[in-house]
Amino acid sequence: MNIIDRRLNSGGKSLANRQRFLRRAKALAQKAVRNHSKDRSIKDFDQGGEIKIPVDSLREPRLHRAPTGGHREGLLPGNKKFVQGDTIPKDKQGGGGSGAEGAEDGDGEDDFRFVLSQDEYLDLFFDDLELPDLAKKTLASTESTSLHRAGYSVSGSPANLSLTRTMRNSLSRRVALNRPKSEDLQALEAEIEALATEGDDPARLEELRATLSHLLARIKRVPFIDPIDIRFRRFQAVPRPVAQAVMFCLMDTSASMTEHMKDLAKRFYALLYIFLKRRYRHVEIVFIRHTHEAEEVDEDTFFHSAETGGTVVSSALEEMVRIAKLRFPMEDWNIYAAQASDGDNSASDTTRSAALLQQGVLPLCQYFAYLEVGRESEATQMGFIPRATELWRTYEAIAEGGQRFAMCKVNHRNEIYPVFRRLFERKGHSAQGEPA
To answer: What percent of the chain has pLDDT over 90?
Structure first.
C-alpha cells in the first residue's frame, strides 16, 4: 500500500516532516486493519474492506496562541453591564477556544474512511511478519532464475537498443573506412565558391569540383549509421539461490478438543496458510491431524473433517519426522512447524513426546511454534489463573533457553491475531510504527 502526501507546502513542511507523517499514517492503517480483522470469519479474512482512521490522529502538532491565559491589552466596545476595573467572569458554557465548534446536537467530524483492496489489506496485515531464520540452502529448479546483463546482440527489442554502443560502432566503422568529414567538405565547398567568384584558375576549379564529387559519392557508400552498427542489450536467465521452506501444521482433533478450541486452532492455521501463500512463493505446507493416530491430510480434510478419538501427541511428532526425512532433507529445506492443542495428552505418552521433540523435531526445525487453545471457563472470567496442562509444562521445560521454540496460549478468538503476530514478527521491528 502506497500512501501519498498531497498536502500543500504552505506550512513549510520539510521532507523529514512528510516522511514522519507517512509513517504515522501507515502505522494507523495497519492498526485499523488488525482491529478490523479480529471479528472476521475464516472464509472472509483474506478479503478487502472498509477501515477507518480517526482524523485527529492525522493532524500534525503545531504551535498556536492559547485561547486563555496570559496578559493582554486591548480596546473593547462599550457596554451597559461592566465598567472599568470590573472582573469579567468566565463563560459558564466553557470553550473560549479558537478552534472549530461542535454543533448543538453533538455532531462532530467523522473518522477518515477508505476501502482497501484484497492485496492492500493483506500487505498491511503481513507487512512486518516473516519466517524466522530463513536460510538459502539450495538452488530450486522452478522460479529460481533472474535476468542479468549478458553483453550485446545484433537483434532484439527496440526497447533494449543500446544507443551508446551503436554510435561507438558507427564511429569506428567510419574511421576505418576513411569516410570524409563534414568539416573537410565545408572547407572544399567554400574554396570552390571563392574560385568560381574570382574566375582566375579554371583548371584548379575543375579539379576541386571533381574531388568534391568523389567525396560525396564516398559518403553515400559509407553511411553515418549502418545496420551492422546496431547493438541491443542482451539479458540472460541466471539461476539464483532460493530459500525453500516447508511448514508442518500439527492439529489435535481428539475428543477433548471442543468446538470452541477447534475454531481457535483453525483460525490460527487459516491465518498461517494465507500468510505463507502471500509472502513466499516456494513454500510447501504439510497438514497433519492426530488423535491417538496421526496422518497427513489435504487442506479440505484438515479444516473440515469431523473425526475424533483419544490423544497421543507423539504420533503427530513421529509422522512429522518421518515425512521430513522422506521428502524434505534438512540440507536442502528450511523446516518449520506449528502445533495446536488443548494441552491434554495421555499420561504414558508425555515422556515419549518430550524425547521426540528434543531429539527428533527440534534438530530438524528452524522454528517451532506451539499454540495452546483453551476454553473461556468461569475460573478465568473470575480472575483465577488456570492450572497449566501437562503438555504445557513439558514443553515449557524444553523451551527454556531455546531461541527456536515459542509457546503461546489463546482463550478467545480476539487473541488469535496478536499471538500470531508475536510468533512471526520480524526481528528488530517496532510495532509502534513511529521510532522514538
So the answer is: 11
